[in-house]
């Protein structure tokens, strides 16, 4: 088990994780990051036409380990 | 064994003098510590606890062990719903989340007492009714609310039960209890903090704006609390909005 930190970056807004979570290796952390991203985008209503949400995983020494990114793109094709 | 009714637990305080006399001689004061398992799923229940400090969770698990909190008990209630419903095995795990103090009574004794005193049994059953309502609202919240709103509801419920606007809990525990991924909790906490509803430091949460949290939790908070007020008019313990009537569609 190791401590992983999951920072969320929603466009330019950063939600840093200051507690970390014990996880069973990077593979588990990777699964967590992707699943969390999917959970998160379910809950946001994008008001802009493009939005980028990322979860950045780092270790205890703040070394970046991976980044999971999801990009929303809305194209308005007509107005009624 | 203790000689006086404990001051802390609201349910015990609502008992009639006769029922208090019946129960009190069998009560034993104990401290409860975070992580203590008061009931194990599928196992006989040794004691029924009436907390007066701290917080106890009813935790249901998937077959692989993944937990989610389905009920919360503090100074307003009691553990051991099965016992008063004439079962003797625990449906779920009951574990201490925030340490404190409680009084407890052996399950067999409580079973005997409720068969002797219909008024004592009625108090226990009414509380189980409130608990059922709470579990239903937890299901509604899990199905329809954002993590942020569920977190607001959860914090209000904790504050009611521990009687303090400050308590210690980790994001990891919160994620486990709400059945959400860790990063979701981190974001939700930051959002509540950004709106000045809470203050959060490492493993510690302080409620700053209770009204704001109630607005956010919306109708997911208040129905069991209103029911409690209706069934225990003398207890007059929960604050919060009156949502004792079900929401109309």
TrEMBL record, chain A:
Name used for this protein in its record: DUF6894 domain-containing protein
Residue ranges of domain DUF6894 in the record: 3-68
Pfam family, one: DUF6894
InterPro entries registered for this protein in UniProt: DUF6894
From TrEMBL, chain B:
Superkingdom, natural source: Bacteria
Keyword Transcription regulation: yes
Molecular function, one GO term: DNA-binding transcription factor activity
Residue intervals of the HTH crp-type domain: 145-211
Alphabetically ordered keywords of this record: DNA-binding, Transcription, Transcription regulation
SMART domains per record: cNMP
GO CC annotation terms, alphabetical: cytosol
CDD domains, A to Z: CAP_ED (cd00038)
Domain Cyclic nucleotide-binding: 11-95
Full protein name: Crp/Fnr family transcriptional regulator
Species per Swiss-Prot/TrEMBL record: Mesorhizobium alhagi CCNWXJ12-2
